[in-house]
Design goal:
Elements lengths: L7 H20 L8 H5 L4 E10 L5 E12 L5 E7 L5 H17 L6 E6 L8 H15 L8 E4 L6 H15 L19 H19 L8 E5 L3 H12 L3 E7 L2 E4 L6 H13 L4 H7 L3 E4 L10 E4 L8 H9 L4 E3 L8 H9 L3 E3 L1 H4 L2 H15 L5 H23 L8 H20 L3
Parallel strand pairs: 3-4, 3-5, 6-7, 6-10, 10-11, 11-12
Antiparallel strand pairs: 1-2, 2-4, 7-8, 8-9
Helix pairs in contact: 1-3, 1-15, 3-15, 4-5, 6-7, 6-13, 6-14, 7-8, 10-11, 13-14, 14-15
Bound molecules: NADPH dihydro-nicotinamide-adenine-dinucleotide phosphate.
Keywords: Oxidoreductase
Protein name: Glutamate dehydrogenase
Family: Belongs to the Glu/Leu/Phe/Val dehydrogenases family.
């Protein structure tokens, strides 16, 4: 860890995993040999490169691109690309590290990776986004391949960006092999991939509640974010009879005591995805309370689903949620909860699921997209949904197996970390030192 003093997010992610693995390693010293833990925190390869492109005004723009190929012990590197001004090596290493364990949890043969750029697609034209994506692929293509590294979307990278990158990949590699997931349906995408992370998170919540003889029916839910994950988490909550009373973006939160309905959700999706609008505009459209610069965690709810970004729920937020009687917190985003906030949930015996377990549905369906591409077949929406549901139930069961405490409480953080670690560690030990 001393090697990376300027990578706080990476330190945080490694610290969290190490803390929950430690007792397990003491009980199972076979996993403490061959420098395994030290090898697992060192990415196998990190590529950083310059991206040069020309904007609509004819000016030359320079961005920084990255791909972190973290671990390939159980399959090709797999993980999204993030386009956001905050992207740096620390954030991508934390995401790639988390992805390695998450992918192991899905039971599918995928290693862990992550990449991205400090490019901000928000205020750019379609033509600028295309030129940027093509310029990025001029370098990235040589590091990818269907059995090497298969990227997907993440924040700022949706179907449009994946399309431009996949198109350029095909051109440069002279191969139609599908080297992205999250592709459009017209060229090898899987049905239900856009919905998968949000739906999967809610399936996981269903399983957590079921162990306590509870259901989503009638539960009040706070969702943060309003992007891909948030939108489909809201949709599945509605389908299962829950009432979603908040939504947010990086500028503020909307509070809606009456809760979302189909019409409001359709308006939010159209506003965010087609018009690139703000939650403030959404609140205005439906006469809702809008809280500029605020997060939604002060609203009393039964369930909280942080679906925006890392470290968006801190200790104070956790205390407020606990004081208001929250029963379940499941992360749709990656590491949205700070370490002390996560500890507070566990100490208060709140059902708390870390993203590597609860948001694994996205990458799971990406894995199913790879399978469909290899088969040259497309599965029906029902078949993908059924498999996603089964995978989320299996991940839940695996977390319970490794995280159940003597008093019956399930520490999902420990459960997910140990279950993911064991699979990766076994594969690494069996393959020797390299
Ligand atoms: P999107 O870009 O579609 O949406 C991100 C949302 O988060 C937007 O509403 C954005 O608001 C909001 N946001 C960004 N920064 C902040 C901030 N500092 N404070 C509050 N809100 C913020 O991304 P996704 O929905 O795809 O991803 C969300 C999270 O889920 C990420 O952590 C991602 O890594 C994780 N994830 C995504 C998966 C997927 O399949 N998409 C799979 C697994 C995890 P604004 O519009 O203002 O920027």
């Amino acid at each position: 860890l001393e090697r990376d003093p300027n990578q706080p997010e990476y330190m945080q992610a490694v610290g969290e995993v190490t803390q929950s693995l430690w007792p397990f390693l003491e009980r199972n010293p076979q996993y403490a040999r061959q420098g395994l833990l030290y090898r697992i925190v060192e990415p196998e390869r990190v590529v950083q490169f310059r991206i040069t492109w020309v904007d609509d005004q004819g000016r030359v723009q320079i961005n920084r691109g990255f791909r972190v190929q973290h671990n390939s012990a159980i399959g090709p590197y797999k993980g999204g690309m993030r386009f956001h001004p905050t992207v740096n090596l620390s954030i991508l290493k934390f995401l790639a590290f988390e992805q390695t364990f998450k992918n192991a949890l899905t039971t599918l043969p995928m290693g862990g990776g992550k990449g991205g750029s400090d490019f901000d697609p928000k205020d750019k034209s379609d033509a600028e986004v295309m030129r940027f994506c093509q310029a990025l692929m001029i370098e990235l293509h040589r590091h990818l391949g269907p059995d090497t590294d298969v990227p997907a979307g993440d924040m700022g990278v949706g179907a449009r960006e994946v399309g431009f990158m996949a198109g350029m990949m095909k051109k440069l590699s002279n191969s139609s092999a599908a080297v992205f997931t999250g592709k459009g349906l017209a060229y090898g995408g899987s049905l239900l991939r856009p919905e998968a992370t949000g739906y999967g998170t809610v399936y996981f919540v269903q399983e957590m509640l079921q162990r306590s003889n509870l259901s989503l029916e009638g539960m009040k839910v706070a969702v943060s974010g309003s992007g891909n994950v948030a939108q489909y988490a809201i949709e599945k909550c509605l389908e299962l009879g829950a009432k979603v009373v908040t939504v947010s973006d990086s500028q503020g939160a909307a509070v809606d005591p009456a809760g979302f309905d189909r019409e409001k959700l359709a308006a939010l999706i159209s506003l965010k995805n087609e018009k690139h609008g703000r939650v403030q505009d959404y609140a205005q459209q439906f006469g809702l309370q809008y809280e500029a610069g605020k997060r939604p965690w002060h609203v009393p709810v039964d369930i909280a689903l942080p679906c925006a970004t890392q470290n968006e729920l801190d200790l104070q937020d956790a205390r407020t949620l606990i004081a208001n009687g929250v029963r379940c917190v499941a992360e749709g985003a990656n590491m949205p909860t700070s370490q002390d906030a996560a500890d507070a949930f566990v100490a208060a015996r709140v059902l708390y699921a870390p993203g590597k377990a609860s948001n694994a549905g996205g990458v799971a369906v990406s894995g199913l997209e790879m399978t469909q591409n290899a088969q040259r077949l497309r599965w029906s929406r029902e078949e993908v949904d059924r498999t996603l549901h089964t995978i989320m139930c299996d991940i839940h069961e695996n977390c319970v197996r490794h995280g159940r405490q003597d008093d019956g409480y399930v520490n999902y953080v420990d459960g997910a970390n140990v279950a993911g670690f064991v699979k990766v560690a076994d594969a690494m030990l069996q393959q020797g030192l390299y």
